[in-house]
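Consider the tokenized backbone below.
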């Protein structure tokens, strides 16, 4: 399973991102979830298909918060869950995003529908 979490632009602008995604994760992660059967994806709603992404520092803050939340929810396995970033991933930003702390992969959306765009992402990393 992939559990997608993300805030609206309004929530982002109000500085509510960490509260929103933390609440979403706590309410979405079943007790049966394991690192082998569950991926977590931070995908800001306002970034999907917009060509806009959060600043790298914002992505790091969210992914670090998600990791800490996972450790609270699953003390033994929380460090092993993969946390992906999704939301306007492109060839121009994939290598930067994938190099960030606690980013374990990308959830590629619209760009995966185009062979040219998707292979450009693969070549960029």
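A designed sequence for it:
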């Amino acid at each position: 399973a992939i559990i997608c979490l993300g805030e609206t632009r309004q929530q982002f602008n109000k500085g509510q991102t960490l509260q929103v995604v933390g609440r979403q994760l706590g309410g979405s992660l079943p007790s049966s979830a394991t690192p082998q059967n569950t991926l977590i994806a931070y995908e800001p709603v306002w970034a999907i298909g917009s060509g806009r992404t959060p600043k790298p520092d914002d992505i790091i803050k969210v992914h670090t918060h998600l990791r800490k939340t996972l450790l609270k929810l699953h003390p033994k396995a929380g460090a092993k869950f993969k946390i992906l970033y999704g939301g306007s991933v492109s060839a121009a930003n994939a290598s930067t995003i994938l190099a960030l702390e606690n980013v374990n992969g990308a959830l590629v959306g619209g760009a995966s529908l185009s062979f040219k765009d998707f292979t450009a992402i693969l070549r960029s990393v």
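Helices lie at 9-13, 17-28, 56-73, 94-98, 115-124.
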